[in-house]
Here is the input.
Amino acid sequence: MEKKITMAINWAGACGGCDVAILDMEEMIFDITDLADIVYWPVAMDFKRDDLIAMEKDSIDIVLFNGTVRTSEQEEDAKILRERCKVMIAFGACSAFGGIPGLANVSDKEGIFQIAYDDTASTVNPRGATPQTVHKVDGGEITLPEFYDTVKTLDQVVDVDYYVPGCPPTRNTIAQAVGVIAAYAKGEELPPKGASISSAKALCDECKRVTTKTGKRIPEVIRPHEVVADPERCFLEQGILCMGPFTAGGCGGSCINAHMPCRGCYGPTSKLLDPGAEALSTFGSIVGKGGEDFQIRGPMKAPVNNIKDPIGSFYRFTFPSALVNRTVKEGK
Here is the structure.
C-alpha cells in the first residue's frame, strides 16, 4: 500500500456545520481515511493546539480550514497551519467569502460587545464587564485571544490554494474535494491554484424553474414569507429576491429544490467581481416602473429602498470579500 498523505482539519470562526458536513459523509469518510492520516482535527479527535505547534514546516500535506478569522488566535492558527502545510483549502463559505459571521462587519468590537454584554434584554451586567485579553487572578493571569474589529476571509490572512464553497459544502462538493485530495495523494495533476470546487456557470444554469423571459419589470420585491410562491416559476419573475444569477452552481440547487430562493452560499462565479453589488445594481434596474420617468430619485428609489436588509440579502455570505467590506465609524 502506498504511503498515506497527512491531513489537518481546523475550525475557526464558524458554526461547526462544516465539520458536521464532513462527518455526515457517512461511508465516504473512509475514502478520506484511506488516502490520508488525519494528524490534526481537534473538534473530532483528541488533538491539542500544542500538537500543531510542535509539527515541523511542510509536515502536513493538506489542510481543510473552515471558518472566518475573527480573533488573534484564529489568525495565529491560520498562519501556523499555512507554514506547516503544502496545500491550504478554504473549506466552506465562511473561510472562502466571510459567510454569515462576516455580517458582523456592519459593526465593530465595541458595538458587538455593547449589544452582547449590555443591550440585550436578558443580560444582567451591572458592572459593564466585557471580555478582556488579560485578567489578573490570584497567582497569575488569565488570557483570552484578542477580538478583532473586522471579520476576515482566510485568503485575507494567508495564501490559499483552493476553495470549497457552501454553507456547508454539499455531499457532492465534498466528494469533489476528496477527488482533489486523491489526485494529490497519487501525484496527479491538480486544478490550477485558486480554483473553486464549484461550477463555472451560475446556479440559474442548473435551476429547473421556468422563466418566461418576457422582459417585464418586477413591480416590487417580495420576501419569501409574504407570498405563496408558484413552485414551478422562476423566483425572480415572481418578485422574490434570488441570488441564483449571481452565485456559482454546483450545490445541486438544494434550497431551490426545497422551494426557497438562493441566498448565495456558493459565492460568485469567476466572471463576477462583487456579486452583491452586481445583484443590487440589477435589481435597481428592473424593479419598479420603467419609462422616461424612471430616475434614480424618482420611481426607482422607492421599490429599491423597500428591500429589507440589503446587506443580509445581497451579501449574506460574501460581505468580508466584497469591494466595500465593512462599515466605518466616523473618526476611526
